[in-house]
Each structure stands twice: as C-alpha cells, then as structure tokens.
Amino acid sequence: MTVIERVPDVTFKTRVRDESVPGPNPYRWQDKTSEEIFGGKKVVVFSLPGAFTPTCSSNHLPRYEELYEEFKAQGVDEIICISVNDAFVMFQWGKQIGAQNVFLLPDGNGEFTRKMGMLVDKSNLGFGMRSWRYSMLVEDGKISKIFVEPDFGDNCPIDPFEVSDADTMLAYLKGTEAAGVSEPRLEFVG
C-alpha cells in the first residue's frame, strides 16, 4: 500500500483550438505537464470511469459545472475532470454535455491514473483499464485531500458514487463536511 502526497509527474496529450490550423477541425496537439496544470494553483480534480457513461454524464460532471462559481468563491483556481479516454472522446463528451467551466483532461494512456494508484480493470464491462472514481484537492501539486469511492478493485460489479461528488468536495472546502459521510483513508494500491 503506497500513500501518494503529490500528483504524478506526467505529460498529458491534449488538443487545443488554434485558428491558424486550416480546415474544419482547427485544433492542434499540445503537451501539458503536471507542473503546468497543477503548479502554483489550487485545483479540484475528479476522476471517473469514462466519458459518455451514465453517472458521469448525468451527475458527476454536470454537478461540478453547476457549482463552479461556488468552488471559485472557495479559492479554487480550476476544476479538472480526468478520465482514461483520448482527447477526441473527451472533447466530444464536453461538447455534448455543454461543459464550459470544467477542464476535461484526457489521460488516454492511463499513465496519470496508474501512477495515482487508481487504474482498475473494468473488463467485466468491456471497458478495459479505467480510472476508479475519486476526487481530490491539489494545492501546488500537493494532494491535500482525497475522496476515494468504496470497494476499490478490479471488475467491481457496481460503480460506487458516494464521496467523489461535487457537493462532498464543496462541503469539505467550506469546512462543513456532511456528517455521516464516510471518508476513505489516504491510501493507494501501488
């Protein structure tokens, strides 16, 4: 069992809009490092099994979008959603959902998720390797709080969604963590 105190140092493969790119798809590849994303910032991160999946699309991402201004009022610089999906899938999902405030960060190779200790096998659903559902508060690259869904493990027959939601994280930031919410320990399978 390994305890992680800082976000892993990885390079994410992202796509950014660039009007100088000709044609109907004006986007180009841009590498973004963990340092660029988390350095010197207070960031709320939530990770989920996949774009376009039911809970992720109906509640997880939309609620973080909805509460964005409240997070900003708590000093949060950015909210990031990480999923083991490629940049094209994350872009189309964000477009369909109407995501405007949450930055959708593709972890296409699962490197960040693996180094976080959160990569699980979801072959029972035909998903392959994906992220376990969790949320965390990251301050200048240091993980200061993490909420990990219960029953962590490969081929889990359910998809727990109890503690990585926007309301739990916001309550924590406001210092009003809901009574009765069981808080997972800061431990990871490494």
Q: Radius of gyration in whole Å, from Cα?
A: 16 Å
* H/E element order: EEHEHHEHEHEEEEH
Q: How many individual β-strands?
A: 9
- What ranges have pLDDT less than 50 throughout 5 or more consecutive residues? 178-190
Function: Thiol-specific peroxidase that catalyzes the reduction of hydrogen peroxide and organic hydroperoxides to water and alcohols, respectively. Plays a role in cell protection against oxidative stress by detoxifying peroxides.
Pfam families: Redoxin
Family: Belongs to the peroxiredoxin family. Prx5 subfamily.
Domain Thioredoxin: 1-171
Brief write-up:
With 190 residues, this protein is α/β, with parallel strands linked by helices. The chain is built from six helices and nine strands, in the order E-E-H-E-H-H-E-H-E-H-E-E-E-E-H.
Q: How does this model look, in words?
A:
It is a single chain. The protein has 190 residues and is α/β, with parallel strands linked by helices. The chain is built from 6 helices and 9 strands; from the N terminus they run E-E-H-E-H-H-E-H-E-H-E-E-E-E-H. The protein has helices at residues 34-38, 54-66, 68-73, 87-97, 111-116, 166-174; strands spanning 11-17, 27-33, 42-48, 78-83, 103-106, 119-121, 129-131, 134-139, 142-148. The protein has a 5-stranded mixed sheet with strand order 5-4-3-8-9. Strands 1-2 form a two-stranded antiparallel sheet. A two-stranded antiparallel ribbon has the order 6-7. Strand 6 and strand 7 form a beta hairpin. The longest helix is centred in the first third of the chain and has 13 residues, at 54-66. The chain is globular, with a radius of gyration of 16 Å. The chain starts with 10 loop residues before the first strand and ends in a 16-residue tail after the last helix. Residues 178-190 have low confidence and may be disordered. One of its GO terms (molecular function) is peroxidase activity. It catalyses: a hydroperoxide + 2 glutathione = an alcohol + glutathione disulfide + H2O. Keywords: Antioxidant, Oxidoreductase, Peroxidase, Redox-active center. Pfam families: Redoxin. Residues 1-171 form the Thioredoxin domain.
